[in-house]
Design goal:
This protein is an alpha/beta fold. Helix content is 34%, strand content 18%. It contains 17 helices and 19 strands. The strands form five sheets. It has a seven-stranded mixed beta sheet, sandwiched between helices.
């Protein structure tokens, strides 16, 4: 392969999703000459914000997140602080309460504040019997999750995973109280639906916690998912935040850092092939025929797209091809409507509440309601009554809607990518979007007729927009058999692939999806460890 000197780099990162950019930031700061390629006009992957719906009435338009919006997990990693992203234009606004559950059948709302005591005060207004239960729940899972978080921030080799969890238990005290080891272990191996049902009495608190836990993907009855509910404890450690100006300001700040350290970020540069020579990755080929060379290639794309399309079966053993093909991507996840609206929802159960729009609004009337939606999903049908999660960031961030109007994003589950009805998503997307909007109207009747415009993302739209196969926003299912050292498959769990010098850094890898950055961080640390002494990295 021949190329001009300007096309030679130390590392090429394919895709500008936030994990790939985290990898690029750490390598750039370490002195690597970094290139990031992005197929779209705007960087950020599924952490991206675009301006939409400009008009004479709304000349500034609306700042619409087109992927993830709420930043929780990344604030538990130290990445933001370590990279000093505030110097590169990133400003966070606290979401407090993190989330709220408007009671569907009577007056009342449960606010989940970062402060535990304030949360308990709110729970006491709706579910007084569960005040102690919630305190016990947070205490139990808090000890466990400090160790789990440490394991998330290291490559998932079996001994390292357990080592980090054990070290955290030494620091924080025993994971379980005396005599509760077996029951504690049973909770960890249980489903999050059962964990919540066993822990609480109030149907409203149960619905709120099950619905929030469901954001990780697995259904509430799947085994070994208990900690998806238990992660609630970590909300009281980090809280949640919204980047001023939209979710994409995180990835824009990382782009600014990369360029400040001499790196290059190329948009409108879709990669067709990862170039492999004698079993080693040596560069990439763009769809317009440009070649870029580097001794290290990092793919931020989906694992199946990376290995089966960009690398290609010709460079993989047949057994490896089969393993990659068999990774469980699932059958869709959910869909979302990004709405420009005349005003904010006024929830019937919480009129004039001054806090409810500070964070997420959980709109799932009951566990039975969610189970009905899941039943439709299992049958391959969109839910007749979707569970919804509303986000109204213009309340705390006027930057996203400057003309006196508002933004309202509503995420809903469970929506199958492959439909059993014989219908096509392009034909039913508006019908299903209206169902989601109607859930908001059920809770807040003032929203009827208040839609200015919307941007709909069905599971098929999500796949097209972000390359998230089958619309799974976590890349691959977050079931226990695809977590830790099993993610995406054991042979590639440490961010390395069968192709030498080719690494993975996406949510396909440990520890999974969400605005986390841990996969990108771990991939960077692996590369820095592997090549620290390699003089051939330094271009002159």
């Amino acid at each position: 392969m021949s190329s001009s000197a300007s096309h030679k780099y130390d590392t090429i990162i394919v895709g500008s999703g936030h994990n790939g950019l985290v990898t690029a930031c750490y390598l750039a700061k370490a002195g690597y000459k970094v290139l990031v390629t992005e197929k779209n006009e705007t960087i950020g992957g599924a952490v991206r914000t675009e301006t939409m719906f400009e008009s004479d009435q709304n000349p500034h338009g609306f700042r619409m997140d087109v992927g993830s919006s709420v930043h929780i997990m990344i604030h538990q990693t130290g990445i933001i602080e370590e990279l000093e992203l505030h110097k590169y234009g990133l400003e966070y606004i606290d979401m407090d309460p993190v989330m709220s559950y408007p009671v569907p059948t009577s007056k009342g709302v449960i606010h989940f504040w970062k402060d535990v005591d304030r949360t308990l005060e709110s729970i006491a207004q709706v579910a007084p019997k569960d005040v102690k239960n919630y305190r016990d729940f947070i205490d139990f899972w808090g000890k466990i999750n400090k160790g789990v978080l440490a394991s998330f921030m290291t490559p998932p080799k079996g001994s390292k995973v357990m080592g980090e969890i054990i070290k955290a238990q030494i620091r924080e005290g025993s994971m379980f109280k005396k005599g509760e080891h077996m029951s504690g272990l049973q909770k960890i191996l249980s489903s999050y639906g059962k964990v919540v049902d066993d822990a609480f009495d109030s149907p409203h608190l149960k619905a709120a916690l099950v619905w929030f836990a469901a954001q990780s993907g697995p259904l509430p009855d799947q085994s070994a998912t208990g900690d998806f509910a238990g992660w609630q404890s970590m909300l009281h450690e980090s809280g949640a935040k919204h980047p001023k100006g939209g979710s994409g300001m995180l990835t824009q700040a990382m782009k600014n850092l990369i360029e400040d350290y001499g790196g290059t970020v190329l948009t409108n540069t879709p990669i067709q092939k990862i170039l492999v020579h004698q079993g080693k990755a040596v560069g990439v080929l763009s769809e317009n025929g440009e070649e870029f060379e580097a001794p290290i290639i990092v793919s931020n794309a989906h694992v199946q797209t990376t290995m089966l399309k960009m690398v290609g079966p010709e460079h993989l053993a047949s057994s490896m091809i089969k393993k990659v093909e068999n990774i469980n991507v699932g059958n869709g996840f959910g869909m979302v409507i990004r709405c420009a609206v005349e005003e904010l929802p006024e929830y019937t159960s919480a009129p004039d509440d001054p806090y409810i729009h500070n964070g997420i609004q959980l709109l799932a009337p009951s566990v039975d309601y969610m189970n009905a939606a899941i039943g439709d999903y299992i049958q391959g049908k969109p839910p007749e009554k979707p569970a919804a999660l509303a986000m109204t960031f213009s309340k705390i961030d006027p930057e996203v809607a400057k003309d006196g109007k508002h933004t309202m994003f509503v995420w809903a589950q469970w929506h199958p990518y492959q439909l059993s009805t014989g219908e096509h998503w392009d034909d039913i997307r508006e019908r299903e979007a209206q169902k989601i909007y109607d859930v908001v109207v059920d809770y807040a009747p003032n929203m009827k007729g208040k839609l200015i415009d919307w941007y709909i993302q069905s599971p098929l739209d999500i796949e097209r927009k972000h390359g998230l196969l089958k619309g799974n926003v976590m890349h691959v299912e977050m079931s226990f058999d695809q977590m830790f050292m099993f993610r995406p498959i054991p042979e590639m769990s440490a961010y390395e692939t069968p192709i030498k010098h080719l690494y993975l850094s996406s949510a396909s890898c440990h520890p999974g999806g969400g605005v986390f950055g841990a996969a990108g961080y771990n991939a960077a640390q692996t590369i820095l460890s592997n090549y620290r002494k390699r003089s051939w990295l330094k271009n002159t």
